[in-house]
């Protein structure tokens, strides 16, 4: 599984490296022509509606699902060690804490050595592809539906000719935030089981995915994969993270990436990376306290230490180290999330161009 996971992004990069401009915007496909029946008038090219509205929101959502799922597999594989180190740092209880190098040494000291940095990679890749795909698919669909609806009901296209409730830009921002929240709410339910298994492997509780699955099932059945409070804290962390990240990314993309790419299309991939990395850093740092609580609930609370209570877990973390305890793992998380989002959005936009996503 690790070999397959590592091969995927490397093979994609190797293939695209030989192309002339692999990450530049792909040429638009030929316009579809309406067919003229036999016996009709002289055939003339009649292009279909050119606007993005002519494309189905569902079709675009499915394309984004595929593009984001493949991108998630690539980025997860490349940066798995930082995610493992972050999990180990956050799992330390009491008044002590592990620094980046100390956590890495602790991980590598287990049987298996450096390969432990990729613990849970198979679970992470197989789990992230459907969840990220579902998230971006729903997000894309909702944004294409909600944004025009808001503009028609509250913006410049109001049918009653009344003054706009607010500017179209403000409505666009709200539609992005709402779409991100909806997409992540749907995806959060599918994330919890693989997050629980992945983090159990990363903290060294089990030596293999098969062992983790069998022992967790034996101990608590389905409840082992859905610890008390795990879905709630997953949503509490992921929804704000999605909103901060996608608002930042869409703003940077609209106001910098697309404008600069008109002048210099050859470096589009680099701008995608910078935009994704910046957006991921903003979202990650602002939601790190929720990530600490989520890790505790999903790795420690299988035995019912906190009774599934987010409040009880948060108070326990605060008693251990004050406000600073909520920033545990923030450095490796940023070291993981910043390049991970940079890599993800490079691959995401690359696959979107291949699939001709509008």
List keywords for this structure.
single chain; about 350 residues; mainly alpha; 12 helices; about 70% helix; about 0% strand
Describe the protein.
With 358 residues, the protein is mostly helical. It has twelve helices and no strands. Helix 2 packs across helix 12 and helix 3 packs across helix 4. The N terminus is likely disordered.
Q: What does this entry show, briefly?
A:
This protein has helices spanning 2-17, 57-78, 80-91, 100-108, 121-154, 168-202, 209-220, 230-263, 268-286, 288-299, 310-321, 330-354.
Give the end-to-end Cα distance, rounded to a whole number of Å: 34 Å
Percent strand: under 5%
Number of contiguous helices: 12
**What ranges have pLDDT less than 50 throughout 5 or more consecutive residues?**
1-10, 12-51
In N-to-C order, the SSE pattern is HHHHHHHHHHHH
Main sheet makeup:
none
Instruction: Give me the secondary-structure category.
Output: mainly alpha
* Overall spatial form: globular
In total, the number of strands is 0
Regarding quaternary structure, what we see is single chain
* Percent helix range: 55-70%
What would the average pLDDT be, to the nearest integer? Answer: 78
Q: Give the C-alpha Rg.
A: 23 Å
What's the helix and strand layout?
Elements lengths: L1 H16 L39 H22 L1 H12 L8 H9 L12 H34 L13 H35 L6 H12 L9 H34 L4 H19 L1 H12 L10 H12 L8 H25 L4
Helix pairs in contact: 1-2, 2-5, 2-12, 3-4, 3-12, 5-6, 6-8, 8-9, 8-10, 9-12, 10-11
């Amino acid at each position: 599984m690790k070999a397959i996971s590592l091969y995927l992004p490397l093979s994609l990069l190797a293939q695209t490296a030989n192309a002339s401009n692999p990450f530049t915007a792909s040429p638009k496909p030929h316009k579809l022509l309406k067919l003229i029946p036999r016996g009709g008038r002289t055939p003339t090219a009649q292009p279909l509606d050119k606007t993005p509205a002519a494309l189905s929101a569902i079709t675009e959502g499915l394309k984004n699902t595929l593009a984001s799922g493949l991108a998630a597999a690539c980025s997860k594989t490349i940066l798995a060690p930082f995610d493992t180190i972050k999990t180990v740092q956050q799992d330390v209880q009491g008044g002590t804490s592990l620094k980046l190098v100390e956590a890495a040494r602790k991980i590598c000291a287990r049987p298996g050595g450096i390969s432990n940095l990729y613990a849970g990679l198979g679970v992470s890749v197989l789990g992230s592809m459907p969840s990220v795909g579902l998230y971006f698919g729903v997000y894309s669909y909702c944004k294409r539906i909600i944004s025009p609806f808001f503009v028609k009901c509250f913006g410049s296209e109001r049918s009653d000719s009344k003054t706009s409730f607010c500017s179209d830009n403000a409505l666009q921002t709200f539609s992005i935030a709402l779409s991100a929240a909806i997409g992540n709410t749907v995806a959060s339910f599918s994330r919890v089981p693989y997050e629980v298994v992945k983090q159990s492997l990363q903290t060294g509780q089990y030596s293999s995915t098969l062992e983790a699955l069998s022992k967790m099932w034996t101990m608590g059945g389905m409840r082992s994969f859905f610890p008390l409070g795990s879905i709630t804290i997953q949503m509490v962390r992921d929804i704000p993270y999605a909103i901060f990240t996608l608002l930042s990314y869409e703003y940077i993309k609209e106001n910098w990436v697309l404008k600069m790419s008109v002048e210099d299309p050859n470096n589009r991939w680099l701008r995608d990376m910078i935009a994704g990395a910046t957006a991921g850093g903003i979202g990650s740092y602002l939601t790190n306290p929720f990530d600490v609580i989520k890790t505790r609930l999903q790795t420690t609370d299988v035995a019912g230490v906190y009774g599934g209570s987010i409040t009880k877990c948060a108070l326990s973390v605060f008693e251990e180290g004050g406000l600073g305890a909520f920033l545990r793992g923030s450095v490796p998380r940023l070291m993981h999330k910043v390049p991970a989002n940079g890599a993800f959005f490079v691959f995401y936009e690359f696959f979107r161009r291949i699939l001709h996503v509008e």
